[in-house]
Design a protein that fits this description.
Number of strands: 21
Largest sheet: 7 strands, mixed, barrel
CATH topology: M1 Pyruvate Kinase, Domain 3
Structural class: mainly beta
Radius of gyration: 19 Å
Helix content: 10-25%
Number of helices: 4
CATH superfamily: PK beta-barrel domain-like
Shape: globular
Number of domains: 1
Strand content: 35-45%
Distance between the termini: 30 Å
Order of helices and strands: EEEEEEEEEEHEEHEEHEEEHEEEE
CATH class: Mainly Beta
Length: 290
């Protein structure tokens, strides 16, 4: 299946990212299974403090230096100066109650070895938990129009969509102000679109992805992604500099979120659970303007 220019916006999937552990480094992939709750294993694990409250780069920038990897054997954690830690899923995992933003949900504790590894690297007591697949955590019904859209440990929605051209626009502004360009990894998207104009993601309600054999997946873009200080953190060093946020503030104050700074769009899965998204697949959408 291909899309014609009559569809309005026509592009392709340029990049795909999966973030297995919330707020740790993401993994760029060539393909990923789309599930009802987003890309398979995206934000399936989360680091929590001693009270079970989620931790993120907002307060612990060093989390950016933890590089998770998933495979048939489970989860592998890597970080500079630390031994590799391989964690296997199993029935012995204990139940826990954890909090992510306003939601308190059941989870599966990954055990003492993971807790010790993370506590040592991050410098404070913490534990690793996995989302309980038996639980349904729903995105905001206000933003989904009443549709029930489950997600795991993401901030609130299943899939984050961004565009290469949007990043290029930001980088042009950064360089003009004397700052270094930044990579897409700072914005932690799942699906990155290529072949479209800067910030076209702001101007569509849904995108259609030709997944092969005449099949189509559909992502409904429901809410602009408000930005915290995490994009200011260099994922290679965990050092923070305000240039990204300061630059976004000059042109990305979004009236839809009362002036919050936004970059990218949060999406839910309307069609195509079980299909495989691949880099290079055609994408189309109808543009809409206020």
């Amino acid at each position: 299946m291909t899309f014609s220019s009559e569809s309005g916006l026509v592009g392709r999937i340029a990049r795909l990212f999966v973030h297995p552990v919330k707020s740790c480094a993401g993994t760029e992939v060539q393909e990923a299974v789309l599930t009802d709750a987003g890309l398979e294993l995206d934000r399936a694990w989360m680091v929590v403090d001693a009270q079970g409250v989620f931790l993120s780069q907002r307060t612990l920038p060093r989390m950016a230096l933890i590089r998770p990897q998933t495979g048939d054997a489970g989860l592998l954690l890597r970080a500079s100066g630390m031994p590799e830690l391989r964690l296997e899923d199993g029935p012995a995992q204990e139940q826990a109650r954890v909090t992510v933003w306003k939601d308190t949900v059941p989870a599966l504790d990954m055990g003492e070895a993971a807790a010790h590894w993370l506590s040592t690297f991050l410098g404070q007591p913490c534990r690793l938990v996995r989302f309980d697949p038996a639980h349904r955590r729903l995105s905001s019904l206000h933003w989904t129009g009443g549709l029930e859209a489950p997600n795991r440990f993401s901030d609130g929605f299943r899939v984050l969509v961004a565009c290469e051209a949007s990043l290029a626009d930001l980088n042009q502004r950064l360089r003009a102000a004397g700052h270094a360009a930044v990579g897409m990894e700072r914005f932690r998207p799942n699906v990155v679109l290529g072949g479209v104009e800067a910030f076209d993601e702001d101007r569509v309600e849904s995108i259609r992805i030709a997944t092969g054999d005449g099949q189509e997946a559909q992502l409904q873009l429901v809410k602009p992604c408000a930005r915290c200080p995490i994009p200011d953190i260099d994922p290679a060093t965990a050092e923070s500099h305000p240039s990204v946020g300061d630059t976004l503030r000059t042109f990305r104050q979004d009236k839809r979120l009362d002036g919050a700074i936004t970059f990218g769009m949060n999406a839910i899965v309307r069609q195509g659970a079980g299909q495989v998204l691949r880099v290079g697949q055609p994408v189309a959408a109808d543009l809409c303007f206020d």
